[in-house]
Amino acid sequence: MLYQLQLQEFAFKEINIHVYVPERAQVQSVYKQQRDINDATPFPYWAKIWPAAYALSNFIIEHNHFVKNKNVAELAAGLALPSFVAAKYAAIVCCSDHSADAIEVVQQSVLYNRCTNIKATVFDWQKLPVDFSADVVLLSDINYAPEIFDALYNMLLLFLKKGITVILSTPQRLMAKTFIGRILPFVIQQENIVVPDNDTIVTIAVFVLK
């Protein structure tokens, strides 16, 4: 295990979820060491529960009929908080991330929570396995970089053509406005959720696409 982990509790309206989170100071320290060796080392953004993940988790609880008894997949899951919430209602949940370190932490959370219906696996959403299948796909804060918007949009179209429901949560970033405009024709439900973020609050938009 690359990082020391802290067990963090997330309290929701109906349920409490415990997930392991890497110790923040150590994340910074390890990143600095890796950058000293290789300037191209990406920052491990997966090592934090972001507001969009918390908002998506809230949405799932309030509208759990979308995932109830379904085959659910979370892509670019990071620490996979929405997956653990969805697992309370879904038949099976597969969460994935391109980072093996992230999935290693998620697997520790799976063991702690004694989850029997969650599978955590390593793959990049831009290179989906040929056998990928799901009834519902969860995405939180995945539309953060304009250079991936076309690939993301094409993936969403592929899912929708297959009859897969997509639930996407996103901060209200100006640079993502064009991308959101492209997906609006497929939106069957939209909700704005206010969640805490350190010492402030942020508004997260959640979209259900069908």
UniProtKB/TrEMBL annotation:
It comes from the Bacteria. InterPro entries: Methyltransf_16 (IPR019410), SAM-dependent_MTases_sf (IPR029063). SUPFAM superfamilies: S-adenosyl-L-methionine-dependent methyltransferases. PANTHER family: HEPATOCELLULAR CARCINOMA-ASSOCIATED ANTIGEN. This is Methyltransferase. It comes from Panacibacter ginsenosidivorans.
